[in-house]
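Researcher: Next entry in the queue.
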Amino acid sequence: MQQRTIGDIQVSAIGLGGMPMSIEGRPDRDRAIATIHAALDAGVTLVDTADAYHLDATDDGHNEELIASALASWGGDASTILVATKGGHLRPGGGAWTVDGRPEHLVAAAKASLGRLGGDAIGLYQFHRPDPDVPYAESVGALAELLDEGIIRRAGISNASVAQIEEANRVLGGRLVSVQNQFSPAFRSSRAELDHCAELGIAFLPWSPLGGISSAGALGDRHSAFAEVAAAHGVSPQQVALAWELSLADVVIPIPGASRPASIEDSVKASDLTLTDAELTALGAE
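Model: Structure for this entry, 286 residues:
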């Protein structure tokens, strides 16, 4: 599988998004663990999670604990896996999403995430979503504090604008290593942020790169160009979508979610799918 860079570390060009394994419609624990193991066995070395990936107040941090358990029971070298988690976006009681970007909350949340994930420090910690009631620099300042204290090894942001990318990198003293924004064939409004990350050499991690949990399976039905290119190569439209995203810049690392081993095993094959210039032009114009 191709390799890409996040800060000072190389990771697989396709990551695993853990959210579908912990929210509504999630699989049973054995299948979830098998899905994570299938990803790792296929060469995935980046696993994305968040403290808010859970059902209700009784299982806060469910996905972080699930990933920690899967890594502990995996037969490979877990030290080669970068786990990226996030804080600042919450689902109180499993209900409506809220935000809390107060520095004290982010510091406490990161420490709680570290407790669930285990180890000496969190590999990559990202501010999940801006809080309109807290100055952005103050929220990101908490990440700088966590870096300085050694609680996290790398810092990133999510759901950010170009201006916020600039501000975060300034507050972090040039230590911003990743931006995680929504991007897919159906959602391309983060292209400016993707291009800005490419200019700065900052990893861009598209979330919901296949269009989201409810739409990923119908990607080919919704986007005819992706279906046509998939048919020409004898692969899934989902593989084509991920390969197209990888072609946009060498900082792009999609993190498709999965709740079945077969899903992530199909997704990782996108790393080795070569599309022609004509195909890329058609996909870009879809």
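Model: The chain is about 40% helix and 15% strand.
Researcher: Noted, moving on.
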